[in-house]
Design goal:
This protein is an alpha/beta fold and 246 residues long. The protein is 44% helix and 16% strand. The protein has one domain (3-242): NAD(P)-binding Rossmann-like Domain (Rossmann fold). It has helices at residues 12-23, 36-48, 63-74, 100-125, 143-146, 153-173, 192-195, 201-205, 217-228; strands at residues 3-6, 27-32, 53-57, 79-84, 134-139, 178-185, 239-242. Strands 3-2-1-4-5-6-7 form a 7-stranded parallel β-sheet, sandwiched between helices. α1 packs parallel to α2 (36-48). The protein is globular, with a radius of gyration of 17 Å.
């Protein structure tokens, strides 16, 4: 059984991805930063359904934590895929109100953390390093192309960096058996909005979207799990919007 690592897998899109991946036959290692109980609940749900899973505490802003998380995933079985999902968003604000501390935290987590996750994934997966090949999926955001004016331009900028990372890395490792894709969710009904100080954001914006509703974490997870599957064997360097035409 191949293993799959999901960073930030205790809630939202990460948790939904972990559950779907396990149902598809992956041994899943998920990381959490602080909510051990939530991570344990995801693992328990997977195990109740006959899957195999483990949770490890890791802050992707800490290099050593990322290295340890990849190593932990590999103990469940040969590493076959990594989903770089962990990220943060700040409270609604304008650029002229941003602090350097906030921007540095945003970039360290969303950009540096994702780059280090990719580095460690390539070191395990690439045939150039003796690996078996595999897939990397980066979770970006529709904000990367919309800019999020008046809300969180810094978050949007960090996700635009993730988009570019995915495109460049895909070309860099395409001949080494590693596929790299990017998924850009739109307005998705998860806890992320509350953590950004807007718990009513989904209810407020959902009805005005082209689809008339926000998306679900499971709808995004379905796309992610397909991208890491062998069915997507010729899909790399692609950016997939799961955003309901937003």
């Amino acid at each position: 059984m191949r293993s799959l690592l999901v960073t930030g897998g205790s809630r939202g899109i990460g948790a939904a991805t972990a559950r779907r991946a396990a149902a598809a036959g992956w041994a899943v290692c998920l990381t959490y930063r602080s909510d051990q109980a939530a991570a344990a609940a995801v693992v328990a749900a997977i195990e109740r359904d006959g899957g195999r899973a483990a949770a490890v505490r890791a802050d992707v802003a800490v290099e050593a934590d990322v290295v340890a998380a990849v190593e932990a995933a590999a103990t469940l079985g040969p590493l076959g895929a990594v989903v770089a999902n962990a990220g943060i968003v700040g409270e609604k604000t304008r650029v002229d109100e941003l602090t350097v501390d906030r921007v540095q935290r945003m970039l360290t987590t969303n950009v540096t953390g994702t780059i280090v996750t990719c580095r460690e994934a390539v070191r395990r997966l690439s045939t150039a390093h003796g690996g078996p090949g595999g897939a990397i999926v980066l979770i970006s955001s529709a904000a990367a192309r919309l800019g999020s004016p008046g809300e969180y331009v810094d978050y949007a900028a960090s996700k635009a960096a993730v988009d570019t990372l995915g495109l460049g890395l895909a070309k860099e490792v395409a001949a080494e058996g590693v596929r790299v894709t990017v998924v850009r969710p739109g307005i998705i009904d998860t806890e992320l909005h509350a953590s950004g100080g807007q718990p009513d954001r989904v209810a407020r914006l959902g009805p005005g979207l082209p689809t008339g509703r926000a998306g679900t974490a499971d709808e995004v997870a379905a796309a992610v799990v397909w991208l890491v599957s062998d069915e997507a064997s010729y899909v790399t360097g692609s950016v997939l919007d799961v955003a309901g035409a937003r």
